[in-house]
Structure formats: structure tokens, C-alpha cells
Amino acid sequence: MSFNQFLYPHVESHPLAENHLLLISEEKYIEKIHIQVIQEDGNRVVLKDSGHLPRERVAEDFVWAQWDMSEQRLYYIDLKKSRSVLKCIQFSADEKFNLMFEAPLDITLSDSGFKLVNFGCDDLQDQENLSKHLTLCVFTNHTGTLCVCYSPKFDSWEKITYSVFYFHKGHSKTFTAALGSVDSHVTKGLTFLNLDYYVAVYLPGHFFHLLNIQHPDLICHSLFLTGNNEVVDMLPHSPLQSLSGSLVLDWCSGKLSRAVLNQSYLLQFLWNTRLDYEKMGALHCVLSWGRDHPFLEAKIIQWISENISACHSFDLIQEFIIASSYWSIYPETSDMDKLLPYSSVLAWNTEIPGITLVTEEIPLPFMKVHSFKGYWEKLNSNLEYIKYSKPHLLYNNSMVQREWHSLISEEKTGRRRSMVYVRNILDNAMKVISNLEARNLEPRLTPLFQEEDNPQRLLMGLMVSELKDHLLRHLQGVEKKKIEQMVLDYISKLLDLICQILETSWRKHHLHPSVLHFSRRASAAEFTVFHIMTRILKATTSLFLPLPPGFHTLHTLLGVHCLPLHNLLHYIDDGVLLLTETAVTRLMKDLDNSEKNEKLKFSIIVRLPPLIGQKICRLWDHPMSSNIISRNHVKRLLLNYKKEPRSSMIDKSPGSVEFLPLNYFIEILTDRESSSQALYALEGHDNVDAKFVEEAALKHTTMLLGL
User: Fold this and answer.
1) What is the pLDDT of residues 600-618, one digit of tens each?
2) CB 201 within 8 A of CB 267
3) What does the DSSP 8-state code read for residue 342?
4) How many H helices and E strands in the chain?
5) Which residues pair with 178 in a beta bridge?
6) Which residues does residue 116 pair with via DSSP β-bridges, in sequence order?
7) How confident is the model at residue 1 (pLDDT cuts 50, 70, 90)?
């Protein structure tokens, strides 16, 4: 018995009189046959020289073979000293074929008989007793993945074991799935389906697993559904066969379908599940299949807003903004999976009920050619990355942390390095904001991007520089201009997602910028939005990601509006609320000088950095602010002061105050102010002098004594 497969069915350059046939024999050899036809007696077509057809031996002594029609590839396994070796032949439109790689497989096929995949209906497959045979298939996709899925003969009705060899990652994973009841007799075979970035593993009536083959390292990035789930009940119970290009053949009905993930169902599943690992797996499924789709993102953001505290194993906001930003630029180049983070989760230790997993390193395929194009170039790049990329090349924004802290420290102390350097960083930030505004033309409800917010702009600009350098180092052959645009798009996406989460929560709770007026009590809706902003801040801080300019001002003003004073100060002291100059200026101007507000203002002013504090104090016409200004003036005057013997020059005029300690102190200040060095040091301080200090001291004393 033999099986035939025509080659190059889509190549139009071949003349009709020529064709090529792949002959697969049960005698365990494969030949390529060159066929020529001639026309006789009008329209009759016959083989030319049928007794001497040109043949080329392609493979021999194999025990398993799979045909990939769309990519014109033949995979087969031969046994070398009882060792299974996977090989691949690539057929080209120029009628040549090449052995592309050899890869050892740690599986046993010696007693499995002869097995063919995707050569038509296989008589050796008993549709009613598929569990008695092993299942083996090879899947690839355009990003250079190479997966071998293998399930041995079932030897237990309580559990099923299958393995996936991720050759493009250098490891295999063996999954053992519990079936539950001993009475759950299995007569159906295990089906593997190629779904592009995922492989579906399907046992009719029992389970449906979606394995993430692009990022298989953590089990939480895959989705495991059991027989109690309605998606398992919706799937056909008849045996399925996966063909090229996500096509699926139902053996019983003969129907040919294209397998895709149902986005509506995945979103519904995301809303309904209570398990963290299912939320994680479903979230990544939705994002990978609906890349940068506004409707899907809006639905996910709505779900996040209503389930902000529902996850305990991972941060929902972190995971969403990292994964969604990754997929927004992933199509630009498949190497992004090595250079940009796909997930905020670095380790997953939570067990998934009913699933046991064993991960092992495997030998890499040995490439047999030296020139690569298309898929083979990407696969080879993946293999080279495994060999030589230690440590991993994933970008981490902590790279900019030290430089950012240095710039912020300089800003607080009034010192600044080269203005050209700082201007370039701020220009980078301006490009990001312009890029973001160009993508979102609708007006925002939230009052963001309405102030300079230098700290966030510096962080944004530093991230642009660092990420651009990172990609330029590792993306060979990609134009610099394209990389620069990818960087702007990526950071813009991060910021846009944060804005969208805020915008969604503001619209849901019917908030308006007018809520920031302090003439009334805060509502429950404002408390909720403040809580969401606090969660956003926590998510971005631990990843050291920039926030939209104005975020901290808005967050602080909401905090003042919502929190009692002791809680507010606790949030400020712990760094949750940042006292921006814009926020504090607004408070000084909008709040009256009631006893409660005086206490609030004073508590805030004493927590400000010196440079900002000096500006803010002058906005508050109050003895408290005069007292603070005086203290700062005295502190500067007496810096490096050395006491020297001197004659007293205390003013004895009739209008002077008879309070010797104060008089003596004011005399020292006056003397210090008279020195040229002190005048130089105090230049630009609004003519605060010893007289001002004396008046402030007397007012403060009078206030303390209640006079």
C-alpha cells in the first residue's frame, strides 16, 4: 500500500505537462517522482514514458511521517540505534529539496508500527479505539516556533499524559491530566490542534487545554479547562484531525473547518471565573488573538475596573498594561519576544488542580543548511538565542532608575548638569506625548497632561533613550527610524492604557474635574476612583513605569478630598501621595484659613522640599507661613556661622521690644546680613531680612500665648 501527494500545487510557473509526486510506501521509503504528460488523439492525456519515470529517494527506514501541504515540508522520524530522530525535508518551487534539520526525540516508537499524518485518511486509525494508538504531530508558525506534540498509548483510565517539545525554546513539558472517575472510560483519541500562538489539546468530553507555545515558560500563561466547563461540552465528541493553517477535519462528518478562538466566549469566561490562573490564561488568550483591538481592550479595562482587587497571585493592572503593550508592537518584528517583557509575572508557584507538569531541557535541532530564509531564518534565530543569550535580554525599566533619581535630586537641590542633556530627555518625552495625542483625538474627561510634571517627563524621556539603545543593540537589520517609532508607540501605549483605565472609572462613576473643589464632602464614587488610582500607582511604581503628567497632582487632590488628615499624612509620608507644586499651589489658593485647613496647610508645607517650600510659603498669607519663611532665612544666614567676641549694639530706641534674647538674636542676623557673602547667598529671596524675622517671631509668640 502506498500514499501519494502532489508537490507545489500553488506554483503557477510549472507547465501543465509537468508535475511532481511524493510517493510514501509502507515499505518505509519516500520517493519524489517527476511526471510528464503528453496529449494524444485530441484531448486524451497520458503519461510520457510511464515505465521510466525519474525518481529521487527522499527518505527511507522511517516509522512516522507528516506532510505540511501549505509549507511544502515533510517531517519524518527514523530510528537510529533505537533512538528516535526527527528530520525535516523542505521542498522548493525550483524542484529542489533539502534536509533542514535533525532533532533527537526522547520518545519510543519502535513498537508503534507505521504511522502517517496529513496524507489523507489512515486505515490504521481505528476511529472507535484511538486511545490504543499514540498521537504525534509537528506544529510550526510564522514566528519560528517548532513544536512536537506527543501522546503515548493510554495505560490508565484515571489520568492521561502528553508531552510537548518546544524546540524553539530548548525544553519539553510533560503534562499529566487527571480524568477524575475511574469509570470515565476513554475510547476517543487525544487531538492536538494548531492555533497559531497556541496549541489546543483536546480529549472529547474530558478536557480542553490551550498551551501558549510563544511563551511556554510559565504554566499560568496557558489555559486549562476541564470536563465541567461548558466549552468542553460545546466541542464535538468525534475525533478531529489538525491540518495545515489551523484547518480541522472532523473524521465522522467529513467537515473541514478553520479553528479559531471565540473572543466573546473568552471575554465571558474572563468575567465569570474566580480562579487566578484561569484569569491569567484567559487574559493572555484574548490579548494574543485580539492584538491592539480597541473593543477588546475596552471590555478588559471594564472588567479590571470592576475586579481591581480580585486577583491575589498577580497584579491585574500590571499584567494587562505589560501584555497589551507587548502585543501592540509585536507584529513589527518577531524578535520582540526576546527583547520586551510579555508578562509582569516572573515565577508561578501556585498549583493548577488536576494538572501535573514536568519540564526538562532537550537537545536543540541540528541545522543541516547554512543559508536561511523566511521561517527557517526565524527558527535559526530562536535556536541561536537559546545557545548564546545568557543572561536574558528582556528589557527592564529599572535600567533608568538610578539616572532618574540622580536627575530628580539635582532638580530638588537646584543643581543641574548639562542643559543640552536634560533638554534632549524632555524632547523625547514630548515626542511620546505628541505620538499619544495623535492616536487619541477624543477629548479626555480626566484632567491629565495639563501640567509640565518634570519628574514624569524625565522618566518618560529616559525610558525612550534606554529602550531605543536596547533595541538598536539587539535588533540587527532593522532601520533606526523604525526602531525609534516602535519605542514611541510602545511607551505611548503604556501611558494610553493607564489613561483608559482612569477614563473608564471616571465615566462609570460620573466624575467631572469639578469634583476637585473642596467645598463639599467626598462621595463614595470619589473614594472608589481614588482607590483605583492608588492601585495604578502601586502597579507602575514596582515596575518603574512612567505615569501621565498630572497623575500625581490629581491623585493628591483626590486624597485631600477623601482622606482624614492623619490618613492623608500617612499616605504622604509613605510616598503613596506625592506633593507636586501644582497640587500644593491649588490647596493654598482654594482652601480657606479655617482651623482645620490651617493644620492641613502647615502639615503639608513642612513636608515640602526646600525649593518648592519657599515658593509655596509666599502664597499663604498667614503667621504660619511667615514663621516657616523666617526659619529658612535664619537657617541660611547661620550656615557656617562662628561665634566671635563683639560689643553689643542692641537698639535702645523707645519703640524697641524689651526682650533681650530676641534682641540679641536679631542683632546677630543683622550683622550677618551686612556681610557681602551673606547678601550674595541670599540674593533672590524676596528681601526677607532680620526685621521680617523679628516680626514673625513676635506674631508666632503672640499666637502661641493666645494674646
Assistant:
1) 888 888 888 766 766 676 6
2) no
3) S
4) 21, 23
5) 159
6) 65
7) very low
Q: Cα–Cα distance between 315 and 306 in angstroms, integer?
A: 14
Residue 237 to residue 354: CA distance in whole angstroms: 21
pTM above 0.90, yes or no: no
Task: Please state, in angstroms and rounded to a whole number, the distance separating the CA atoms of residues 273 and 696.
Answer: 64
Whether residue 690 is contained in a domain is answered as: yes
Q: Is position 688 within any domain?
A: yes
Tell me, rounded to whole angstroms, the distance of Cα 639 from its chain centroid.
50
Handedness of CA 518, 519, 521, 526 (dihedral sign): negative
Most confident segment among 37-51, 555-569, 642-656: 555-569
Query: Residue 666 is part of which domain span?
Result: 630-707
- Is residue 582 situated within a structural domain? no
Residue 686 belongs to some domain of the structure: yes
Residues in the chain: 707
Q: Tell me the three cell numbers of residue 412.
A: 530638588
Sign of CA dihedral 119, 124, 129, 132: negative
Do 672 and 638 contact (CB within 8 A), yes or no?
Answer: yes
d(CA 240, CA 203): 10
Rounded to an integer, the average pLDDT of 458-472 is 95
DSSP-H helix ranges across 398-509? 401-413, 419-439, 454-474, 480-508
DSSP 8-state class, residue 441: -
- Which residues are within 8 A (CB) of 336 and not within 5 positions of it... i.e. 6 or more apart? 326, 329, 330
Sheet (strand 146-151) strand order: 135-140, 146-151, 159-166, 171-178, 355-361
- What single-letter amino acid sits at 289? W
What would the pLDDT profile of 139-166 be if each residue is shown by its tens digit?
Answer: 999 899 999 999 988 777 788 999 999 9
**Contact between 603 and 584 (Cβ < 8 Å):** no
Residue 448 cell numbers, joined? 491629565
Number of domains the chain contains: 1
Q: Are the CB atoms for 268 and 291 separated by under 8 Å? A: no
Terminal CA-CA length for the chain: 114
